[in-house]
Amino acid sequence: MEPVNIVERARRLGCHIATPAAAWIFGADTFRSLGIRPSQAPDLSVDPDSRVLTFINPTKKRKSFAVTVLHPCVDVRGRPLQDALSTDNTGVQNTCTTFMAVLAPGTILDVCKIQIKSLKKLQYHSDVHVVADHPDPGHLGPDTPAVLFPLEGAHLCTQSFNGPLTHYQLGTFHAIDFACPVGTPVLAVGAGVVRSVQDSNTCSGIHVANLFHWNSILIELDSGFFVEYVHIKPASARIAAGDRVAPGQIICEAGAAGFCPEPHLHVQLHRSADPAAPTVMFALLGREGPYVPQDGLVYSADGLVAPPSRPEQATAEPASTGAERTSAALLSIEPCVSDQVPEATGQKGPIEESY
User: Fold this and answer.
1) Other C-beta atoms within 10 Å of 47: how many?
2) Which end of the chain is more exposed for a tag (fewer CB within 10 A), N or C?
């Protein structure tokens, strides 16, 4: 069974995952190979002559880069890079291209060429920050929580644990994304009490500014874990804070609110309701027992289903950085279904002309 290539899928939606091995970037280097010492370099630079956009990490820690450019961009061969429409909470739409990357310490990445006549007219939005290592990235065992499938029907997993697009932060590391049409019923994965509901945001698309605005429902399960559902459809919540829910109960509808290359449901577990709490490894319950979904495959309440009708060709481009991905089925995990964490946060860095 050949999984859908999730990196390629994101690219076609205007969201480009840049790595040193990507064939479309202009190049990659390190401060060490160049024989220079890291200094107070900017996070981002644009060459005033070539208009090449560069990501720079002079620190001794991994750094995350999320940059949206509101101008046409081309790759190293001069080919246009896919863009897409993005909408803010006021309804204003912009055509833009977004680039995501996690750079190792001392790395320099020449990403793309921005097609603009004057840098004085450059429009962009960025979120650049250090990536903290997860304290417990992947220890599976008898205490790993297992919950019900969160949607009606069968859906493609577009990003799983430590995913290359947005699931490498402390607050999203163990998140799972399922592509689904807007309006798909979202289900309670276990019995519990609703702790918070946010369904007023209407922004959508790939603009980095949408990383800071999303809709979500937080439920405290009877097991003691907290489950969060993100990107839900505006004004679709069927429950309120304080309500008790039963396993499989419809709680809202899936949507595309927030940073969403496409409509999808993002689900994750925590040990507390603290917005800074890291995610917790978990599994989904299928007909053959608990499992962790793998990027590019289709799942339902029964578990893995037939492969996609048009699997996209895989590439040699690495899918992510950091801890090793987990996609194997889980065994000997006790179910716990019986009876706010941002997608990304950090400080912005200025774009500077590089001379």
Assistant:
1) 17
2) C
Per-residue pLDDT tens digits of the chain, which is 355 residues long: 678 899 999 999 999 999 999 999 999 999 988 888 877 789 999 999 999 999 999 999 999 999 999 999 999 999 999 999 999 999 999 999 999 999 999 999 999 999 999 999 999 999 999 999 999 987 777 888 999 999 999 999 999 999 999 999 999 999 999 999 999 999 999 999 999 999 999 999 999 999 999 999 999 999 999 999 999 999 999 999 999 999 999 999 999 999 999 999 999 999 999 999 999 999 999 999 999 999 999 999 999 996 555 544 333 333 333 333 333 333 333 334 333 323 333 333 344 433 2
Instruction: Find out whether 267 and 150 touch, Cβ atoms under 8 Å.
Output: yes
Closest to 28 measured CA to CA, from 7, 60, 52: 52
* DSSP-assigned states of every residue in 134-166: PSSSS--STTS-EE---BSS-EEEEE-TT-SSS
Are the beta carbons of 52 and 46 closer than 8 angstroms? Answer: yes
Radius of gyration for the alpha carbons in the chain, expressed in angstroms and rounded: 20
Cβ neighbors of 230 (< 8 A, separation 6 or more) are: 175, 214, 215, 216, 258, 265, 266, 267, 268, 343
Q: Can you tell me the distance from the alpha carbon of 311 to that of 212, in angstroms, rounded to the nearest whole number?
A: 32
d(CA 261, CA 330): 29
Tokens of 104: 């190792």
d(CA 87, CA 202): 8
User: 155 pairs with which residues across the strands?
Assistant: 299
Q: How many whole angstroms separate alpha carbon 64 and alpha carbon 62?
A: 7
Full-model pTM: 0.85
